[in-house]
Amino acid sequence: MNEVRTLLGGRGLVESPRWHGDRLYFSDWSVGEVVAVDPAGRSEVIARVASLPLCTAWLPDGRMVIVSSADGKLLRREGDGSLGTCADLGRPGWNDIVIDGRGNIYVNRGDFDPMAGEAFKPGSVSLVTQDGSVREVADDIAFPNGMAVTPDNSTLIVADSYRHSLLAFDIGADGGLSGRRVWADLGEGTPDGICVDAQNAVWYADVPGRCCVRVAEGGAVLDRVDLDRGGFACALGGPDGTTLFIVAAGWQGMTASELVTPGSGQVLATEVEVPGAGWP
């Protein structure tokens, strides 16, 4: 059984964990903060962006890119901590982001706002290139959530929460996507944030299932970490790459006045056997 320890607590809707350098970075959507925390639990706020969702990734040159969903922009955090525009996405409503080893930026969005009670409409994935141009490269994803790229830069994996599956796409030389397929049918699993390990298995966090699950291509369950609250996303990192970080909170529902129970957001950590690989 995986022993789970609490690295940080007292937070809100925590999402987008990313290991970079020697710290874990995550977003607290409830207060619009991007936070860095070290393995000892010492934390600091490194950016404030009034946006929900609020997800992050790193360019190959080491600069952070932040999805400012509310104003439909990608922001780039410079070395002095200032935020500038990396790309204009044209409209609000963007969700997760991943940047592959070549600098291709993938961002996804649902085409409806469940929090506002809008009627369902499938979402999409867009590619943002280094010159700031934006083009849609995949559509008909019921509710696109977490994304990850395999270590060889060949495959983009997308969590489709509403269809309870992980989708895979081949990444072309120009960053375009093809070869759409169901990478794993998760049955009743509802994937949110995901990450890839060195054996090309995927960990996915599950909010209604209150767990984090490791699956092989095809959907066979390889490992599972049970939680006492919703698991929103996960990332592999730490000194050896074998610490699984999970961000979790008490989910209250898409139409609740507060999406999660105030103060229930936690950053959790547990040790696993296979280190992380690929992106994020």
Automatic annotation (TrEMBL):
InterPro entries: 6-blade_b-propeller_TolB-like (IPR011042), SGL (IPR013658), SMP-30 (IPR005511), SMP-30/CGR1_Lactonase (IPR051262). The keyword Hydrolase applies. Its cofactor is Zn(2+). Gene3D superfamilies: TolB, C-terminal domain. Binds 1 divalent metal cation per subunit. Keywords: Hydrolase, Metal-binding, Zinc. GO terms for molecular function: hydrolase activity; metal ion binding. Signal peptide: none annotated. It comes from the Bacteria. Pfam families: SGL. PANTHER family: LACTONASE DRP35, LIPOPROTEIN-RELATED. This is Gluconolaconase. It comes from Streptomyces albiflavescens. The lineage of its organism: Bacteria, Bacillati, Actinomycetota, Actinomycetes, Kitasatosporales.
